Amino acid sequence: MIVNRLAQSITAFVLTAAIARNLGAEAIGQYLLAYSYYFIFVGIASQGLKILFTRELAREPQKTSVYLMSGTCLQLIFSLLSYGALVIVVFLLPYSSKTSTLCYIMGLTIIPFALSNVTEAIFQAKEKMHLIAIATVPVYVLRLIIMIWAIQLKYGIESLGGILFCSETLILVIEWILITQLVKIQWQIDKDFVWNTIKTARTFFAIEAIAVVSSRIEILILSLLGNEFLVGLFGAILQLLQPFLIIANSITVAMFPRLSKVVEQGREKQQQITESFIEILLTMGLPLFLGLLFFGKNLLIFIYDSSFAQGSLALSISAISLLLLPFTRTLCSLLVANHFEMVNLRELVITTTLGGLVGVVLVSRYQLVGAAIMALLMTILAFSQYLYFTYTLLFPLNLWRVIRRPAIISTLMLLVFLILKKIDLDFSLTLIVATSFYILFVIFLSIHTLGGIHVIREKIVKIKMKF
Q1: Structural domain range at position 157
Q2: Which of 258-262, 329-333, 366-370 has the lowest mean pLDDT?
Q3: Domain count, the chain
Q4: Which of 15, 78, 142, 182 would bridge with 45, disulfide CB 3.0–4.6 Å?
C-alpha cells in the first residue's frame, strides 16, 4: 500500500511542479480545483462501500464472489449518479468555461475509479495489497510521462483530464484481470445483498461524503472567495505535505483489516497496534514539521519558482497539522474497526460545519493565510474529538510510549537543521544532508530498540537456519 500511495503521491507531486513551472499558478489552480471536485464526488460514490466491503470481507471471505458482482453493480449506479451531481454543481457555480470543461472531463474518472475500489477492497480484505501496486504503479508512471509530454507539446489543460480518465480505466481492466485469478466469478446480481448493503452503508456514505468535502473545503472556499491563482498557491502547499499524508493513509489502510480481526482478542492487543502505528507516523511527521519551519520557503522556490515564495507563511501554519495527523488517521480507523462509525460521523459533521463557517470569515479576510489557519483549526477539532472518544469508549493511550522515540529523533534533527541553517549550503545539498541524517538516526534508534546489533545478527542467523 505504501508503494502504491507513494507512487501516486510522487507522480502527482511531479505533475503539479511541471504544470506550475510551464503553465503558471493559475493553471495549476484550475487543475487542482477540477481534481478537487472529482475527488469529492468519487469519494461520496465509492469510499463508503470500500471501507464496508473491506471490513466485512476480512471477516467473511467466503462471500467474496457476491461482493464482487453485486457490489460492482451497486457501485456503477452510485458512480453515474455522482457524476451527474458533479456536472450540475459545477454548472451552477460561477467558474470560467475553461475551468468548468476541465471539471466535466476529469469528473468522468469517477466511474472507473469507483469500480476499481470494489476490487481493491477485496485485495485489502485478503491482505494482498501488492496486487493493487502491480495494477497501479506502472500506470501512474506511464500517466505522468504522457501528461508531461502533453504539457511540453502545449496541449490544453483539458487534455490532462482526458489522460487521467484513460489511465484509471486501464487500472480497472488490469485489476479485473488479477481478481479473476483469486475469485470464482458468479455472473448474477443478488438483489437482497444490494438492498441490505445500501442500508448498512448509509453511515459510511455519510462519513465519507462529509470527509471528502472536509478535506477539500479550503480549496472550494478559496475558489469562490478568491481566484484560481490562490487555489494554485494553496494546492502547491498541500502537495508538499502529500508524501506524509499518503504514507499515513497507506499505513492506516493496511492496518485496518488487522484491527478488525483483533477486535475480539481484547483491547490490550488493539492498544498495542494503535500505539505502534501512531509512533511510526510521528517519527515521520515531527521531523518533517521542523524541516518545513526551517526551510519551507526554500523548498517552495526549489520545487516551483520564486512566485510561490509568498506561500511560505501559509506552509508553516499548515505544517503544524503534522503533529496531530498521526493520531487522527490512526484513531479514525480504530473506531470504525470497533463499530463506532457514528463517532466518526459526529466528528466530521462538527469539524466540517465549524471549520467551514470560520473558514469563510478567515479566507474572506486573510485569503491564503486564512485558508491555512482554517485547515489547522479543523485538524485540531478532529484531533480533540478522536482522542476524547478513544479514551471514553475504548482505552487511554500511553502518550509517553508513543512520543518517546519520535521526540529523540526530532531533537537530533533539530540540531542538524540549526547547523545547516547556520552554514547556509546550497538547498539541494541541504536537502540531501538532512535526509541522510534522518535515515541514520532512524536506523540507529531502531537497532537500539531491537536490542543492539548483536541481537539483530543472532535473529538473522536463526532465520537463515530455518531455511
Answers
A1: 1-200
A2: 258-262
A3: 1
A4: 78
